[in-house]
Automatic annotation (TrEMBL):
It catalyses: beta-D-GlcNAc-(1->4)-Mur2Ac(oyl-L-Ala-gamma-D-Glu-L-Lys-D-Ala-D-Ala)-di-trans,octa-cis-undecaprenyl diphosphate + L-glutamine + ATP + H2O = beta-D-GlcNAc-(1->4)-Mur2Ac(oyl-L-Ala-D-isoglutaminyl-L-Lys-D-Ala-D-Ala)-di-trans,octa-cis-undecaprenyl diphosphate + L-glutamate + ADP + phosphate + H(+); L-glutamine + H2O = L-glutamate + NH4(+). It comes from Paenarthrobacter aromaticivorans. Forms a heterodimer with MurT. The active site is at 101 (nucleophile), 198. Keywords: Cell shape, Cell wall biogenesis/degradation, Glutamine amidotransferase, Hydrolase, Ligase, Peptidoglycan synthesis. The gene is gatD. Pathway: Cell wall biogenesis; peptidoglycan biosynthesis. Substrate binds at residue 135. InterPro entries: CobQ_GATase1 (IPR033949), GATase_3 (IPR011698), Lipid_II_synth_GatD (IPR043702). The lipid II isoglutaminyl synthase complex catalyzes the formation of alpha-D-isoglutamine in the cell wall lipid II stem peptide. The GatD subunit catalyzes the hydrolysis of glutamine to glutamate and ammonia. The resulting ammonia molecule is channeled to the active site of MurT. Its EC number is 6.3.5.13, 3.5.1.2. This is Lipid II isoglutaminyl synthase (glutamine-hydrolyzing) subunit GatD. Signal peptide: none annotated.
Amino acid sequence: MTPEAQPTKGTIRVLQLYPRDMNIYGDWGNALVLQQRIKWHGYTPELLEYNVDDDFPDDIDIIVGGGGQDSGQLVIQDDLQARADQLRKLADDGAPMLVICGLYQLFGKFFKTSAGPVIPGISILDVETHGTDERLIGNVTLKSSEFGDVLGYENHSGQTTLGPGVQPLGTVTKGAGNNSKDGHEGARYRNVVASYLHGSLLPKNPAIADFLIRTAAERKYGTFVPGTPDDDYARLAREHAARRPR
Ligand code: GLN
C-alpha cells in the first residue's frame, strides 16, 4: 500500500488567521510544520486560510496566527472584532490555538501603539500591550514547564504585561520576551499558546506542535494516537539555533 493509500486516523483542519496581513519572520512555517506533523501522526491535514472579509470556515480544529507590523494590525482590527465572539467561544471550548506576536497582542485586551492609536483586542487573553520607543530584537530562549527549552526570535515594540487570568509560557533565559522587565515570555490560557517568538516557532519546538495536534485530536475524536514523526530536522534546527550569537 502506498503511504497515501493508507487509512488515516481522521482529518485535522488547521486555519491560518490573516496570513495576508499578519505573517512575518517566517510565521507561515508554523502552519507547514503542523501540516507535516499531522501527516506523520497518521492523520489527514487540511490547511485553510482566513483573511479579512472571507467566510469563516466551519469545523476548525487548530488556529494559528502570526505577527505583523502595526499597519497590518490596523488593517485587520475591525474584522477581528467581528470574529471575536466566535474565536472566544472556540478558545473557551478548548480549541488549540497558537498566536504569535502581533496576533498575540490582539488576542489580549488592547495594543496601545507607540504612534498613538489604541488597537482593541478580543480579550481571549488577560494581557495588555503598550508600544514603546524601544524595539526588543534578537534570539530568545526560555524555559517552559510544559514544553522544555523553547527557542525563537523576537522583534517587537509592544511590551505585554500579564493579568491573573493567564500563565506565562515560560521564563526567559536569553532575550526579553513579553517586556523588558518581568522575565516572562508568552501566555497560556486553556489550549491557547501565545508567544512573541517567530523564527518560525514550531520547526524548532516540535513539543508545542504536538501539543496542538494532540489537543485537537482529543477534542475531536476523544483520543490521540501518536505516530512516529521524524524529529531529526527539529534537532538540527535547535542545534543550529543554539550556536547563534544573540
Ligand atoms: N507591531 C507589533 C509590535 O511591534 C508586533 C510586531 C510583530 O508581530 N513582530 O510590537
